[in-house]
Design goal:
242 residues, Nucleotidyltransferase, domain 5, 5-stranded mixed sheet, 32% helix, alpha/beta, 4-stranded mixed sheet
Length: 242
């Protein structure tokens, strides 16, 4: 991916996430490891990188440009915490200036709680959309293997009359999306018992899929949802600017 534009890289469990500075703007890209990433030259444009997923064996990234957990300014971070959770939790807290619960809907749906004083306060982990769909297909003889992004089945889970779909694909998608949304809604209500006014921040690639169901569950509770799909990547950029 050479081209002379400064870039930041967050290596996830199933995708790579790029932030590219070009023309005074920051462009975000997501995808599998590109073949060009293994060619000489592209590293010259790399400002900083971080990883929560595996590194390709043939890839050699400069260690001096790697951002680790110790660089994230959240108090009481345990050494085992995933870097993506720390990054997203820190930036959500910094932007809102109050207690936050970050629901990062990626390969795993992680819930990360940060107090109003910027202290890590625990969380929860659930299998994400893709993992749940894959587990159903692999663990049964009758259910199909659905390939993400499943745009049509997943988008239609929020359409009128689709709460109880008749076909299998949409039944699987509806169950997973609404189930995860219910888990997030329950978590933020419990978090607000400890920190009244705790702000829910929804991030990750599957965040937009969960948003409609989540808003429907929380509207009556006077809880707003702040959708920030690229929170961890944006935090990497802010912690290691040009």
């Amino acid at each position: 991916m050479p081209g002379g534009s400064p870039r930041w890289l967050l290596i996830g469990n199933s995708r790579w996430h790029w932030a590219v500075a070009k023309g005074g703007e920051l462009r975000v890209e997501h995808g599998p490891p590109p073949a060009a990433a293994l060619e000489p030259g592209w590293i010259d444009d790399l400002v900083a990188w971080a990883a929560v997923g595996p590194l390709p064996p043939a890839l050699s990234l400069p260690p001096q440009r790697r951002l680790g957990l110790e660089r994230v300014p959240l108090a009481e971070l345990p050494p085992w915490l995933g870097l993506d959770r720390a990054l997203a939790g820190w930036l959500a807290w910094r932007r809102h200036g109050q207690a936050v619960l970050v629901a990062d809907a990626g390969t795993v749906l992680s819930l990360t709680r940060v107090t109003g004083k910027g202290r890590f306060a625990g969380g929860r982990l659930l299998a994400g959309v893709g993992l749940q769909l894959r587990a159903m297909a692999e663990g049964t003889a009758a259910l199909p293997q659905l390939e993400l992004p499943l745009a049509e089945p997943l988008r239609s889970t929020q359409a009128p009359g689709m709460a109880w779909p008749l076909d299998t694909d949409r039944a699987m998608a509806t169950g997973v999306v609404r189930g995860l949304a219910a888990a997030v809604a329950d978590a933020v209500l419990q978090a607000r018992e400890l920190d009244p006014g705790c702000q829910l921040v929804l991030s990750g690639g599957d965040g937009p899929l969960l948003l409609p169901a989540l808003q429907a569950l929380l509207d009556a509770q006077d809880v707003t949802v702040d959708l920030q799909p690229d929170l961890a990547l944006q935090a990497l950029v802010e912690l290691q600017p040009l």
